[in-house]
């Protein structure tokens, strides 16, 4: 992807709107205007194998090709880019993301993105390594998968991905370890309330409990979630298609007096048993429909892989793929 395409995908008007929202507009004429620094920061994710100065050089070349050689931008020192990024801040980019990044699948055109009238979205987590600095470790933590700590601090991201297009259109992030550790379920409680009524959300068994289900149910979205084998689901009615209605209890215990009714679908793939819960009725979706739909959840897994190991990687001249997971300072 070239810089020119970035300007087309994210119009300058949207960038200026975001700067106004965050109060990050330049108070005077600067050598590194905030509007161009916003594009520079976005491009750093596209050119993760290049130095920050080299990324800015690509920006200047694109602007000169578009507007002529008199564009008033010069290649700055790395320290100048750092100060300019600090002035830009985070809030403007967060707002820009919320205004620009949307589900993009088109009904009747995008394969695998819809079930009947509902847009398929999946929820899952991803871990992103960040630069190994004292400040990052204090803020985001360093996980300890074994006896030794992980080589880098990391950020946990729980996101909503549109099936078919693999667009990550909403997310919550937090520390992956340490005293401020934000668990996957904790981040999900902040993200799930933003589901929409025209969406069908698919989730794996980590999310299949009363607390998260209730949060998502209140949005009016349709849900299809897998549940763990130790979750109590007391059958109250067997339906004509073989699925059954059951009670999902608060605290996952039948001794609880707080519960919600769910429809349960059970099937096996090879030797692995699946148990799904949904708020879709039998006329809305058959057992076979739901079994096929659940496996769309793997769209999120492949989207995670593409973010970390495909889009964010660099091919060396020798042909060796070098991963570039670390954010720049």
Features:
329 residues; alpha+beta; 2 domains; 10-stranded mixed beta sheet; two-stranded antiparallel ribbon; 12 strands; 34% helix; elongated
Notes on the structure:
This protein has 329 residues and is of the alpha+beta class. The chain folds into two domains: 3-99, no CATH class; 105-308, no CATH class. Helix content is 34%, strand content 24%. The protein has eleven helices and twelve strands. Strands 1, 2, 3, 4, 5, 6, 7, 8, 9 and 10 form a ten-stranded mixed sheet that branches. The protein has a two-stranded antiparallel sheet with strand order 11-12. Strand 7 and strand 8 (244-249) form a beta hairpin. Helix 2 crosses helix 6 (91-100), helix 3 (34-46) packs across helix 4 (52-67) and helix 3 crosses helix 5 (78-88). It is elongated. The two termini are 23 Å apart. Mean pLDDT is 87; it is low at 314-329.
Shape: elongated
Our estimate of the beta-strand percent is: 15-25%
Count of domains: 2
Low-confidence stretches: 314-329
Radius of gyration: 23 Å
């Amino acid at each position: 992807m070239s810089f020119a395409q970035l300007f087309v995908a994210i119009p300058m008007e949207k960038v200026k709107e975001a700067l106004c929202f965050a109060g990050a507009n330049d108070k005077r004429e600067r050598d590194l205007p905030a509007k161009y620094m916003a594009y520079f920061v976005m491009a750093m994710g596209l050119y993760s194998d290049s130095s920050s100065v080299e990324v800015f050089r690509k920006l200047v070349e694109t602007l000169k090709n578009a507007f002529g050689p008199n564009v008033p931008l010069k290649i700055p020192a790395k320290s100048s880019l750092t100060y300019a990024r600090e002035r830009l801040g985070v809030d403007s980019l967060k707002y820009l993301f919320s205004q620009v990044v949307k589900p993009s699948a088109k009904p009747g055109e995008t394969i695998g993105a819809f079930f009947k009238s509902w847009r398929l979205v999946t929820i899952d987590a991803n871990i992103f390594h960040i630069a190994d600095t004292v400040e990052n470790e204090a803020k985001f933590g360093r996980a300890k998968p074994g006896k030794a700590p992980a080589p880098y601090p990391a950020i946990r991201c729980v996101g909503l991905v549109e099936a078919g297009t693999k667009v990550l259109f909403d997310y919550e992030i937090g520390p992956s370890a340490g005293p401020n550790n934000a668990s996957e379920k904790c981040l999900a409680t902040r993200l799930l309330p933003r589901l929409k009524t025209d969406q069908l959300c698919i989730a794996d068994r980590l999310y299949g409990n009363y607390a998260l289900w209730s949060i998502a149910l209140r949005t009016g979205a349709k849900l299809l979630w897998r549940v763990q084998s130790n979750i109590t689901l007391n059958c109250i009615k067997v339906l004509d298609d073989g699925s059954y209605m059951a009670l999902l209890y608060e605290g996952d215990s039948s001794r609880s007096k707080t519960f919600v009714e769910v429809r349960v679908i059970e099937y096996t793939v090879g030797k692995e048993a699946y148990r799904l819960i949904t708020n879709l009725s039998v006329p809305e979706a058959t057992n076979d429909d739901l079994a096929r739909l659940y496996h769309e959840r793997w769209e999120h897994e492949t989207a995670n892989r593409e973010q970390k190991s495909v889009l964010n990687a660099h091919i060396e001249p020798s042909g060796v793929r070098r991963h570039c997971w670390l954010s720049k300072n």
